[in-house]
Request: fold
Amino acid sequence: MRKLAAGNWKMNGTAASLSEVAALLRDHPTPVCEMLLCPPATLITQMAALAKGTALHIGGQDCHAKSSGAHTGDVSASMLMDAGATHVILGHSERRTDHAETDAQVNAKAVAAIGVGLVAVVCIGETEGQRDAGQTLDVIGTQLAGSVPDGSTAATLVVAYEPVWAIGTGRTPTLQEIADVHRFIRERLTAKIGAEAAGVRLLYGGSVKPSNATEIFAVPHVDGALVGGASLKASDFGAIVAALSAA
Ligand code: PGA
Reply:
């Protein structure tokens, strides 16, 4: 299995930010791990042009479940593909919170994405209240069952475990807590999609940075990271790519 360092730029970046991508490609032309950057939709075409013929993949941050139609402000999976994306993040906690996305909607989006040939990066994660109440594995199990399409394969699905309380806060779970959740995700995925689950990349996300990447990547069943803030700077994301390549 090839590990995956994925960056989520969220609602950050303009054409001027592409210099960071050029720097990343200059410093890490042939990483051992796979690299993915998911910029705002406005930058996908330009970033994909920059990444053409390199080891960097480009992804969207969301897509609509329908292929076209009267959905102002939305972008379809085939549009992402047309713009040069190969992946799409779905069900990020900010989408689930800001846009009230449900597991069923995330599932429908993943079906649409996989249907046009994109890799679906499905995000799940508990809130702080749910963790404090001892509900973490229940929440993860429910989100996984609802959000991951039946028939997903190692080639079409990536799962990102992102505790909501660790996103953008500088706080992370203990390595044991990450290990427990990732093992549970692998088990549940195996029950759902069978042997393919062994090859599905399970990413940890939430305050991953160069200083904690190496220890997180040593946790069993952590096959990469989904990185927010630290993916905006080539030097930080590059250090995470290097840590994952060495893991
Ligand atoms: P962060 O965000 O790395 O800034 O915590 C992670 C994410 O939301 O994907």
